[in-house]
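The instructor's notes for this session suggest beginning with a concrete chain rather than abstract definitions. Hand out the sequence below and ask the class to guess, before any prediction is shown, which regions might be ordered.
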Amino acid sequence: MSVYIGIDIGTSGTKAIAIDANGKILGEATASYPLHQPKPLWSEQDPEDWWKATVETVKSVVKTAQLKPSQVKAIGLSGQMHGAVFLDKHNQVIRPAILWNDQRTFEECVEIESAAGGRAELIKLVANPALTGFTAPKILWLRKNELANFERISKVLLPKDEIRRRLTGEFATDVSDASGMLLFDVAKRTWSKTLLTKLDLSSDLFAQAYESQEITGKLTAEVAALLGLTTDCVVVAGAGDCAAGAIGNGIVREGLVSTSIGSSGVVFAHSENFAVDPSGRLHTFCHAVKGKWHLMGVTLAAGASLQWFRNNLCLTDDASIYEQLTAEAKAIKAGSDGLFFLPYLSGERTPYADPDARGSFIGLTLGHSRGHLVRSIMEGVTYSLNDSLTIMRELNISIEEIRASGGGAKSALWRQIQADVFNESISLLTAEHGAAYGVALLAAVGAGAFTSIEEACDATISVRHQSKPDTTASRFYRRAFPVYQGLYHSLKDNFKQMAAVESDVNYLTAAVVDG
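After discussion, reveal the predicted structure:
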């Protein structure tokens, strides 16, 4: 029996999955680690924690599935995108990795757009505008604020690619993950020499980029012994977590779109050809499907909005609290009796790219209950996802089937709200295992079990249920959605004023502490 392992280096933890050549899951394991926020808006992790979690989960999967070392033919890697791991010439980590949700780099984003000749010119070079989450501004921030660390840099790697280095000793990345660094010519699927020159960065800092199913190396003898595997086990390029999750959902052909509600929310559309939003509202990245692309919109606080509500406003540790909250929300009619929620608890990416945006309940009255609040959160997150779908329709992106994934897909109510807001049927897969499963399939393709990732998905992924839109609810949401959109525009200037006041308070507090 041939076995393939997928590893996903997430923000809250690492997940490993082992599958056979039919896509059957033989074992899975997860391991968590901390997120560090040393200053407001900063977000960092220690790559050593990722490595320990990788070793723990792979060894657990091998043991649980009772695998012989020679059975594991290939490993695929996925991980949180945009993070920056800085290595010195001895391959030692220089400082904690700066993550995708770190917001310290606003000034560097302005610097990058200026160096490129403006926002429009930057989009021509790398298909995307400069956003605080991307990798390039993190590198410039280090150069400006930690020059001694910057001068020690020999390589800048993405999170999953640091794990690859430890597994194989090789410096490599894949085209989907590289697309999110803001230094990659997405149309040509190679590093942008033009932008690197404008930013005075050497291409030697970055790993070679491969297509996602291509083999990038084999396990070293030391690592093979540590994991209970062999040096014949190859490691394929893999994919960034969004592209890998899309592979796990079978989004590998024109017309297929996925909506994922995890901590963040993602709308992901396959594209046979290179296509870009001239306004930069959507991301255009290389897909994990060889020679293809995808367009993507992101809501920064999707499931995280409901989790925030549970953690801070529901004073209970009862594991069934989500079921109770959902039951209360289900009893409320569409529209939450005029209550709107803006899910901008972490700022927002699509379509506004506004780190100053703030979460808001708008329209509260004495008649609103907890159920209204919960339903309005579900509706607000779905409206935000609909922002991305609306742009895709404007760009004539084919939308023939929408597949729901992530934790939000487990909620029948949330799937129905999506169907009603989008006015589209929402498909639920027989099984949804996300990014780790997607890169396990890529590993199988790389090892020769399938001729293509399309063939692999056809053989292993199927739809088991569809939620169809309710005519009455959809008619209501068509009227309510423009109201939701208007609220951001009405409050945009207020959000910036609030952020300025918040910054002043933080400065004054720091000054008092410093003496």
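Then share the key points. The chain has two domains: 3-243, 252-431+470-515. The first helix runs from residue 47 to 64.
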